[in-house]
Design the sequence.
């Protein structure tokens, strides 16, 4: 499924634009929080199907505006890492394939949160709640693999499945900037008049099958391929043209779980946050 990045780039900022700020001063009202999140990220796709396998550190910065005790809107800027390695698998098919990758992910997202219970920073009565959230994000990724010389090389320009070659004119290089849909939930608790703590888990539904640079079939050896293209496409040198390399029926996901701390910018009296 192909998605226009430009179209959804505008949609992302349109969603952010719905942030209900009646004036600039309200940006720093008592219902606005800033904070950070730290946790773990991983992906599921052609090289990994197990949740929490090969998890890596992740971090993000958060800006949240609480609309009332039930709804909040949040902007988040995150940096994550995903990776996977066939050579560490117990599966004979993956061992024979011998592919691996790593990728940094940089993500800007806009989300809407819903609290199942009334929640208010600093409140004794409304001091915790489970919550869910959803939204839209724009993210950049760059799958790399290590060659026989010990160098990590970018995979997308190599067209490891024949993208951009005359042998496969219908296969185009995939875009490394894509749109995703964040979906998740967790629990939040107010520590005092200023601080909140949250534990959350979320997945990103993407519209690409190339987070790991693996999707369709082996291209063989197109005339445009160099020794590096061949090695990164088929590191075990044992596969024939059009032999299955990945599963193009399902797109990849990436996941982010962690703990976040947010700080309320103004310390108005408890109970006066929402008018």
Sequence:
């Amino acid at each position: 499924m192909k998605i226009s990045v430009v179209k959804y780039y505008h949609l992302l900022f349109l969603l952010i634009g719905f942030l209900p700020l009646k004036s600039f001063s309200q940006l720093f009202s008592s219902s606005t929080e800033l904070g950070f999140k730290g946790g773990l990220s991983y992906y599921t796709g052609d090289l990994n199907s197990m949740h929490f396998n090969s998890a890596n550190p992740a971090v993000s910065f958060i800006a949240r505006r609480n609309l009332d005790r039930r709804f909040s809107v949040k902007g988040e800027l995150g940096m994550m890492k995903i990776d996977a390695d066939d050579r560490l698998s117990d599966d004979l098919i993956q061992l024979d394939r011998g592919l691996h990758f790593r990728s940094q992910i940089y993500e800007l997202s806009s989300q809407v949160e819903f609290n199942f219970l009334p929640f208010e920073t600093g409140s004794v009565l409304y001091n915790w709640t489970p919550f869910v959230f959803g939204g839209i994000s724009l993210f950049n990724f760059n799958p790399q693999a290590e060659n026989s010389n010990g160098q990590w090389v970018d995979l997308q320009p190599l067209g490891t499945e024949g993208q951009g070659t005359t042998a496969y004119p219908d296969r185009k290089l995939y875009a490394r900037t894509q749109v995703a849909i964040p979906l998740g939930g967790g629990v939040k608790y107010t520590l005092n008049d200023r601080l909140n703590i949250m534990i959350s888990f979320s997945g990103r539904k993407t519209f690409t099958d190339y987070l790991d640079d693996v999707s369709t079939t082996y291209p063989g050896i197109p005339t445009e391929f160099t020794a590096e293209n061949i090695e990164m496409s088929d590191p075990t040198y044992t596969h024939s043209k059009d032999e299955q390399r990945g599963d193009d029926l399902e797109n990849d996901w990436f996941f982010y779980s962690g703990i976040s701390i947010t700080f309320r910018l103004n310390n108005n009296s408890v109970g006066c946050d929402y008018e």
The longest strand covers residues 100-115. The chain is about 10% helix and 40% strand.
